[in-house]
Amino acid sequence: MSVGRPELLETTGYIVADSEGRVVGRVEGPMYGTEPDVPDALAVRSGFLSRRRRLVPADTIEEIDSHSGVIGLSIGRDAVLSFL
Question: Which residues pair with 53 in a beta bridge?
Fold first, then answer.
């Protein structure tokens, strides 16, 4: 099940969990690439005071639970790319 990319606009502050239920981090905001108004990925901060961020592509998001504020991924935490 894939998530619609416009839904990523409303996920700032959500917690991201990998396929095993481990926390990856908290969403900082959407990231744009191919189209200016449609996000392709999410920028996720992995720690409270950490500068480390991870890039979560929209294709790896399995579901978004708006009631609990959790995004479930279809991949493991180690497979998520990190960037500065």
Answer: 45, 83
